Amino acid sequence: MKTAHEIRPGNVIMLDGSPWVVQKTETTRSGRNAAIVKLKLKNVLLDSGTEQTFKGEDKLDDIILERLDCTYSYFADPMYVFMDEEYNQYDVEADNLGDAADYIIDGMEDVCQVTFYEGKAISVELPVHIVREVIYTEPSARGDTSGKVMKPATITGGGTVTVADFVKVGDKIEIDTRTGEFKKRV
Description:
The chain is mainly β and 186 residues long. It has one helix spanning 94-97; strands spanning 2-3, 12-15, 18-28, 36-43, 49-55, 59-62, 66-76, 79-83, 89-93, 111-117, 120-125, 129-137, 150-155, 160-164, 172-176, 181-185. It is built from one helix and 16 strands. The model has no long low-confidence stretch (mean pLDDT 88).
């Protein structure tokens, strides 16, 4: 059992007797109230999706499934293909990746964990930190140094990350895949 606050994208939880893949998590904390966790879920058996809201301390039944270390191989619309050390290939539907699809690029060497349910690859968990190149961002605004200045940047793979003002096109940055936050320039 995990609390709702500990659930991450790629985890598989049991709700109402069915396994659900967590595609996205969003935590909201307010001053006096407890944290609220909003989960975007996809049913493994029925391919239906839903959003559920939980209190941060709610207990959820995390299913322990078979996991295998794999690397990304190629994209065969609408499937992402991953390969293990023995060159076995596993297809994962693009819908099951959720936000992780923004960080997957051709030639990436990051080792991912592919999760299986009844022999079918259902989700992928990326490493906690990955390095990607900034392919587009606005130039820094000269003189705007009051506090922590952030701006949007597009990274290889097509995702958008909010980065510090000093980051420019061509820089390699480290990203926390759990939250999608910029960590540092590499």
